[in-house]
Amino acid sequence: MPNCFCLYRKADIDSKLELKAVPLNIVDAELCAYMHIEVHPTDYAFSWFDVIGLRLALGQSFIEQIANAEEHATEPNSDDTEYYIEQLKILRWLDANFTFDSWVER
After folding, report:
1. Is pTM beyond 0.85 here?
2. Which of 51, 57, 77, 96 is least surrounded by Cβ atoms within 10 Å, i.e. has the fewest?
């Protein structure tokens, strides 16, 4: 059974507009603009879909993921500190701009 997720703009919730899921390639393009990098033709930036997206699909909120990344980013003598710092930038940007829904399909 696949675990799924979609993202909605917080601005649409605040303005009472009809909620429509934002295509993930659009989210990726906006993330790339925020991070000042070029959009890759086939891969999501920083593999956010594979890591953050999977955790969203499994029901882990942005806040939970941020707490986890903060914990790992501050571990002494960690080789992954830079990775978690990048994840924190992405997670905080996503949390500031989007909300999510997750579900399991049968």
Report:
1. yes
2. 77
